Amino acid sequence: MTIYIEGHTYHYEMENLVRLFYPNEKITVTNESPDEYVKPYIFTSLGKENGRIAISVTIETECFSETDTVKIDNFTDDVDKTCEREMAVCLYDLLCRCTGKTQPWGILTGVRPIKLFRRLSEQYGEEYAKSYFTEKLKVSKEKTDLSAVTEQHERKILALSTDKSFSLYVSIPFCPSRCAYCSFVSQTVEKAGRLIGQYFELLCKEIEYTAKIVKKKALRLESVYIGGGTPTTLSAVQLSKLISVIKENFDLSTCREFTVEAGRPDTIDEEKLKAIYEGGIDRISINPQTLNDDVLKVIGRRHSAQETINAYRLAEETGFRHINMDLIAGLPTERTESFKSTLDRICELSPASITVHTLALKRSSRLTMEGKGISTDSGENAAAMLEYCEKKLTACGYHPYYLYRQSRMEGNLENVGWSKEGFDGIYNVFVMDETHTIIGCGAGAVTKLKVPGSESLTRIFNYKYPYEYINGFDEMLKRKDQVTAFYDELS
User: Fold this and answer.
1) End-to-end CA gap in the chain
2) What pTM was estimated for this model as a whole?
């Protein structure tokens, strides 16, 4: 598929929109004149005509040939944004007719639809935001209503943040095995286990170094998240020490939430849970993804559904009140009825929060490398799964408190965090909304420095892989000095 561009710079938006309808095709974008003999192609044009801006979109395939045009002479907001949106709508309508498909999120291709919904609500009111989503952006009524409810819960959390607020992310980039859908920067214990000890010692030093910077700048810690990878690949002794290093070096008197992503049930035991609990951690995550043993094998998980349930009950017995559980809709070979059974069993356990992801086929995942593509059938299955989630979880007393989207998701759907009252995961909201500074420690971590009252972010990247982190540790610590320079400029 070739997309021809004439008279505008909306390359990125046009390509992303076409990719929603043709997710597995190679797409080329060019400024050259269209070759009418090479099909399929899409021609997008913007120009001035009789004092108006004229937008034209043509789609040519072997079985479809049609052109849409729109003229704009009354602008209600930024001219360039208006033109971009109108061209996207024009292209979207043609793609719907060409393929016979619609998209639940309409022309929206961004990661953070709730952020846009909130901005519209704050400026013009919630009803305007809803109508803008459905009429201007072609978002379905169901996803618009979900956005409105989610935004209401997010807003309460965002109000907790101040100009001096930040959250801390600590990366443990090791896993017992690599899941078939995974694209995170993590290493299997079999391949990189020998690095864990050295990595851990340097990580503790980075945390200490970072804490000194934070103290000098008098920043306010709101939340801590130890993620990965799978943090419980560490031993109980290491987990206990890691938590102690954080508590001894950072002022946790303002910290509202401290999460350890226990993650894989096959790494959880009583000793590790006690080490986490006795460290004062108030939130953990145990992530089954599915309770279908056959699907677990397909995705490379080395544990059973029963092990997940056992791990959850052990965590409850240890004393944890806030246990989150992650599920993935659209996993290979998972059917709708099987997924419903998983969710029903999870609801019987009644965790404080449940995060429902939709499978995203990232380029570096094993599934993608083995040739799995996005199909209409799998998208319809995933959509049915999420529809059941909304009904079931609402009936069980959960509400959506954060939502985000990714590229190459089955059905072009979304990820949603659901929780019972009082158990929203505030780090998830802060990081997804980019509310305040996130300071990252460990391999693959990214520090995002936020200018208060703006959308400006300055990023500082740690080395991706454990061996790079170890070999370049001194250089990486120097990068942390950029945090000092950033806050010096603000003061």
Assistant:
1) 51
2) 0.93
What phi and psi, each to the nearest 5 degrees, are found at residue 156? Answer: -65, -35
pLDDT in the model for residue 34: 77
Nearest-angstrom CA–CA distance, 230 and 187: 10
Cβ atoms of residues 226 and 245 within 8 Å: no
CA distance 3 to 11: 9
Query: What CA dihedral angle connects 375, 380, 382 and 383, to 10 degrees?
Result: 140
* CA torsion angle 191 194 196 197 (round to 10): 180
- Kindly report the number of other CB atoms within 10 A of residue 216's CB atom: 12
| Residues of the chain falling short of pLDDT 70 | 74-77, 178-191, 362-377
Beta strands (DSSP E) in 198-351 are 220-228, 257-263, 283-286, 322-329
CA 248 to chain centre: 31
Residue type, 168: L
Tokens linked to 338: 């099987």
Domains and CATH numbers, the chain: 1-101 (3.30.160), 160-480 (3.80.30.20)
Q: Contact at 8 Å (CB) between 424 and 157?
A: yes
Query: Beta 446-450 vs 322-329: how paired, if at all?
Result: unpaired
Q: Tokens 């070979």 appear where?
A: 333
